Amino acid sequence: MSVFLRGLQLRLRALLRRAAVEQDLDEEIRQHLELEAQKYSDEGFEPEEARRRAALNFGSVDAAKEAHRDHRGTRLVEDAIADARFAMRTLARNPLLSAAAILTLALGIGANTAIFSVVNAVLLRLLPYPHADQLVMLSEDNPERGWVHADVAPANYLDWKERVRSFADVAAFESGGGATLGGAGEPQRIS
After folding, report:
1. Which residues have a Cβ under 8 Å from the Cβ of 10 and sit 6 or more positions away?
2. Exposed site from 22, 132, 169, 172, fewest CB < 10 Å?
3. What is the tally of helices (H) and strands (E) in the chain?
4. How many other C-beta atoms lie within 10 A of the C-beta of residue 74?
5. CA 39/CA 32 separation, integer angstroms
6. Residue 102 clears pLDDT 80, i.e. is over it
């Protein structure tokens, strides 16, 4: 079995059988302390002094357990589960506040969804035509009269249609009341 799969197997076991893994860790630390105490006993120390020296040499048991838990690589998931449990207990303790928070979130998400749907339909989504990203709108400017992006005069449109070769085709529409575009699919009314 590869090292990766073995590590994954150990992490899953640590998540799914946490009590057993913690019990194994406690047993391993206990055995380590006993072996260390036995070493000091063999050197001639009294059993109580040997256990004390083994504990001092080992250091903090809680710190060793935390370091082992961090090394397992499941800390993020364990913390997320603990946070979710805490959140559920908190919500259950204060149902009125919970209902208000959930309602506020639901309204906010609904409003954002509705606004995005409109923006997507109007601004983001391309028109349903082949090469819709190549459509352009031509207009005229007349600084003397203060016109900016004004409708093209019919005579100018006819000249452009006849002479302009930069575009595949030129078409006209009246911008005041919107227009109906036709092409592939059903005609669509746009403003």
Report:
1. 72
2. 169
3. 7, 4
4. 19
5. 11
6. yes
Give the whole-angstrom CA distance, residue 152 versus residue 165: 18
- The CA distance from 59 to 78, in Å, is 25
The residue assigned the tokens 């630390």 is 29
Q: What is the pLDDT of residues 36-81, one digit of tens each?
A: 888 888 888 888 988 888 888 888 888 888 887 777 777 777 888 8
How many Cβ atoms sit within 10 Å of the Cβ of residue 14?
22
**Where are the strands (E) in the chain, listed by range?**
140-142, 147-150, 179-181, 188-190
- Sorted by sequence, the CB contacts under 8 Å of residue 170 that are 6+ apart come out as 138, 157, 160, 161, 164
Distance CA(90)–CA(97), nearest Å, equals 10
Query: Closest Cα to residue 188, out of 118, 119, 121, 116?
Result: 121
Whole-number Å distance between alpha carbons of 14 and 21? 6
